[in-house]
């Protein structure tokens, strides 16, 4: 049990720093959006800055392919170490990027390179950590253990929001806009360096080592982490894209976009909006292990279906009420309701995806389809929201989120249950490599 917890703790700590670096770009964008573009329309500058944020998502499929391949061929540890190295480099670049007043659009170019590196890093981080946490967990506790991926992701965002709240209360607005926004990126670079050291001493998962030792021949080893191997699991890859669609749009709507929505659309003061997000996200983080443990008892599908039904039918009223919340407590209640619904997806989506693929292609199988889904839907969520807002039809975004959830609901209703799948036997049958394999589900006692 001790080794299981050590692996989960170290894997989660690295994930926290990765997502701190990823999310502080979004949470501090309101302060540095004007620094990299000519003075003018605040909404237009924020859209430009979030457009660069979205560009990072379009590098995630490349990172998913590259680091997923490394994770399947060299091990989960190798992929996890490389992701945090790339993230550290990107944080340093943003921290030192010159403003428009100093270098014109040169600062935008530096910002773009940094976001591309972040996209590569996070494109592999999700799958590497999802695979690692799922494989490292004790039997019968995969849902609980893998839920710590979103615990650590949310913790990273909370640290970023907490830092923002402290800075908002100790620094002037002008200082935050001129140089204060660089502080979180410096913090992120230091944190990534610490995690790099921890991950160098990370233990490989027993599932991966056993599969590596059981490889039948050199040809099987050569197929690890290749697109050719992934194409043998086209149905599972499509399933990852489809089940991610609604979840990722809802998640980014109620996490990274929430603070901006409350301040820009609901007219709430920035410090109050940040505090609403912080408290709601903290409670959301605490719910993840509880929901993950519940899925180990009742299965994954009931939680996914509950999320999709809630998001399909409650997104429009929740967002409409949030826009007119006016004060801290009503906004917090609505934000928490939305995040409770989203927990049905976030708490278990990592293990569900990992349970679909055999060990030799698991990291790539999770990474590439998930990254594609995030590039199309997650990374563009804020940009789509701002596009609707700029066009004067902000409520159109509410229906967009509900529609994405409805599509995923169809997938959840038709997919198989994955709770009882034996990770070591997934893909072992049938033996004929020309036939697609399906996960093996053992009899329950």
- Give the tally of structural domains: 1
Shape: globular
Helix content percent band: over 70%
Mean pLDDT: 87
Please report which band the strand proportion falls in: under 5%, 5-15%, 15-25%, 25-35%, 35-45% or over 45%.
under 5%
Contiguous runs where pLDDT drops below 50 for at least 5 residues:
429-445
Query: What do we call the CATH topology?
Result: Growth Hormone, Chain: A
Subcellular location: Cell membrane
Protein name: Alpha-ketoglutarate transporter
Pfam family, one: MFS_1
Family: Belongs to the major facilitator superfamily. Metabolite:H+ Symporter (MHS) family (TC 2.A.1.6) family.
What tags apply to this protein structure?
mainly alpha, Growth Hormone, Chain: A, 445 residues, 76% helix
Structural description of this entry:
With 445 residues, this protein is mostly helical. The protein has a single domain, classed as MFS general substrate transporter like domains (Growth Hormone, Chain: A), CATH 1.20.1250.20. 76% of the residues lie in helices and 0% in strands. The protein is built from 23 helices and no strands. Helix 15 runs antiparallel to helix 19 (328-346). It is found in: Cell membrane. The chain crosses the membrane at residues 20-37, 49-67, 79-101, 179-198, 237-254, 274-291, 303-322, 328-348, 360-377, 397-415. Belongs to the major facilitator superfamily. Metabolite:H+ Symporter (MHS) family (TC 2.A.1.6) family. Keywords: Cell membrane, Membrane, Symport, Transmembrane, Transmembrane helix, Transport.
């Amino acid at each position: 049990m001790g080794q299981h917890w050590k692996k989960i703790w170290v894997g989660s700590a690295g994930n926290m720093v990765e997502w701190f670096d990823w999310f502080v770009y979004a949470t501090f964008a309101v302060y540095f959006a004007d620094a990299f573009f000519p003075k003018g329309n605040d909404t237009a500058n924020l859209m430009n800055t979030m457009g660069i944020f979205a560009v990072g998502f379009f590098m995630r499929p490349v990172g998913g392919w590259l680091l997923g391949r490394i994770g399947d061929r060299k091990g989960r540890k190798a992929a996890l170490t490389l992701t945090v190295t790339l993230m550290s480099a990107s944080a340093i670049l943003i921290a030192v990027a010159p403003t428009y007043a100093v270098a014109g659009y040169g600062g935008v170019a530096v910002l773009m390179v940094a976001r591309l590196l972040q996209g590569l890093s996070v494109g592999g981080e999700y799958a590497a950590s999802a695979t690692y946490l799922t494989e490292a967990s004790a039997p019968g506790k995969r849902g609980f253990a893998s839920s710590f991926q979103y615990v650590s992701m949310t913790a990273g965002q909370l640290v970023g929001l907490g830092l923002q709240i402290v800075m908002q209360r100790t620094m002037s607005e002008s200082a935050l806009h001129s140089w204060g926004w660089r502080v979180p990126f410096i913090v992120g670079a230091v944190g990534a360096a610490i995690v790099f050291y921890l991950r160098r001493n990370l233990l490989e998962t027993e599932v991966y080592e056993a599969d590596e030792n059981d490889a039948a021949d050199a040809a099987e080893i050569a197929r690890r982490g290749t697109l050719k191997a992934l194409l043998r699991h086209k149905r599972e890859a499509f399933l990852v894209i489809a089940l991610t669609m609604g979840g990722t749009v809802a998640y980014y709507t109620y996490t990274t976009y929430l603070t901006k929505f409350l301040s820009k659309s609901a007219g709430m003061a920035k410090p109050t909006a940040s505090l609403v997000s912080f408290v709601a996200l903290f409670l959301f983080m605490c719910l993840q292990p509880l929901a993950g443990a519940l899925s180990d008892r009742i299965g994954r599908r009931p939680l996914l279906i509950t999320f999709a039904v809630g998001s399909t039918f409650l997104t429009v009223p929740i967002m409409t009420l949030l826009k007119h919340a006016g004060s801290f407590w009503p906004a917090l209640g609505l934000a928490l309701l939305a995040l409770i619904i989203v927990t049905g997806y976030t708490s278990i989506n990592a293990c569900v995806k990992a349970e679909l693929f055999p060990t030799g292609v698991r990291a790539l199988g999770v990474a590439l389809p998930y990254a594609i889904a995030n590039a199309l839907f997650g990374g563009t969520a804020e940009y789509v929201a701002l596009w609707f807002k700029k066009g004067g039809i902000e409520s159109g975004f509410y229906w967009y989120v509900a529609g994405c959830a409805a599509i995923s609901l169809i997938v959840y209703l038709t997919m198989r249950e994955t709770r009882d799948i034996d990770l070591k036997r997934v893909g072992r049958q049938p033996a004929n490599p020309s036939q697609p394999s399906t996960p093996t589900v053992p009899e329950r006692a």
